[in-house]
Amino acid sequence: MTLTDPFALSIVAITALAFLGLPIGLSMICGSVLYLWMAGLDMGTAAEQFLNGMYSNYIILAVPLFIFAAEIMNSGSMTERLLRFCNVLVGHFRGGLAQINVVQSLIFAGMSGSAIADAAGSGRMMQAMMTADNRYPPSYAAALTAVTSVVGPILPPSIPMVIYALVSDASIGYLFLGGVLPGLLMVATQMIQVAWDARRHRFPVEERVPMRDIPRITWRAFPTLLMPAILLGCIYSGVTTPTEAAALAAAYAVLVSVVIYRSLSWAEGYAALLTSARTSISIGMMIGGALVFNYVVTIENIPETLRTSLTGMDFSPLGFLLMVNIILLVLGCVLEGTAILLIIVPVFIPTAQALGIDLVHFGVVVVLNIMLGLVTPPYGLLLFIMTAISGAPLRDIVRDCLPFLAWMVICLALITLFPGIVLWLPRLAGYGG
Fold first, then answer.
1. CB crowding 239-278: b at 16 or more within 10 Å, else e
2. With contact defined as beta carbons under 8 Å apart, do 46 and 32 qualify?
């Protein structure tokens, strides 16, 4: 490949446009059109790939529906009631508010599938609660909110896993199940770190909720707590597909917020709809651009060439997984996660299959890698969100994130070395991988 090669020039064009500020989805479309023009191919193929890919993939519908469900929960009082319930569970421990932050992310993960929705919604409330009366340093509260939000896309449902299923043809249901034990492992390590920090820094102990108030708080939160059970029960019982379950989640969030809690006004509902539409359009353009660029990659036969090269290097499955982990961890520091899923990961999938690596295991490893990228500088999106919410300096938030990041790397190493952590639940559900 030379610098005058059409594919090389398309890569240069995509990189240059992205650095100049053009959204990565549009950059990929422009670079792909340039390739088709230089290769003497029909440039209309770009539009054909875009439209066919977007309209023929039923699975893509799950993304805006999960985003809308999360926005409705944050606009109504569902998140607030969830936090009160978590206070009953762990609020009376030392560092109780920090433990509440971890537990609410565990429960919220079963509803939204989005780390950003978690950080921007319940994370905003947790930041205010933790920093009130100087209970916790703003940077620690922001760092904890960022790292706990990462759990959302590991536990089902998960928008990144939906996108991975789109590019790999792996089963969404089994991917969701595969993320359960790794997600719980991450939650456990976060709670351990919080308990250590609480004793070391003597974080305050919150007032215990009176026994007489516990039934009332639990009853008020019950419709919210029922959502993950309904959502996952419908998926794994076969009543709905994951996409239909996403629609059910959105409808249920509206029903609970409007009819049961009566906490969602027309203005708030409209604002939630606009926010979810903007987010969905951004992700949709990225998916569309990746579909066009993947067509170019296919024409160039890049996946097969890479598979042949890696096979010739005599990689073992574990060696290949370690190499992918290193590459994705580095790329996660400078690239957005969805772009990695749509551009980089499809190139590795044929090699993973050739080496006999299970695609569900590979998918969970990949998604956990990408979630690490959300809290690693310089591009960590959750770090930027929490800097804006908290007002704390970015360097202080990064410093307080480091112990949690170390635990996350340990979790990544464990699920890489021991595929059974990922595959145990899917196999119990009948998965043959």
1. ebbbbbbbbbbbebbbebbbeebeebeeebbeebeebbee
2. yes
Is residue 312 over pLDDT 80? no
pLDDT exceeds cutoff 90 at 227: no
What is the distance between the alpha carbons of residues 257 and 261, in angstroms, rounded to a whole number? Answer: 5
Q: How many CA atoms lie within 13 A of 11 on its CB side?
A: 12
CA 381/CA 114 separation, integer angstroms: 13
What is residue 406's predicted lDDT score, i.e. its pLDDT?
93
Which whole number is the average pLDDT over 209-223?
83
**More confident: 400 or 338:** 400
Residues making up the chain, counted from first to last = 433
Non-local (6+) Cβ contacts of 119 within 8 A are 145, 146, 149, 382, 385, 386, 389
29, 292 Cβ separation under 8 angstroms:
yes
Q: 91 near 97, Cβ under 8 Å?
A: yes
Mean pLDDT of 16-25: 79
Q: Is 215 exposed, middle or buried (0-12, 13-18, 19+ CB in 10 A)?
A: exposed
Query: Which residues lie closer than 8 Å to 223 by C-beta, 6 or more apart?
Result: 78, 256, 260, 261
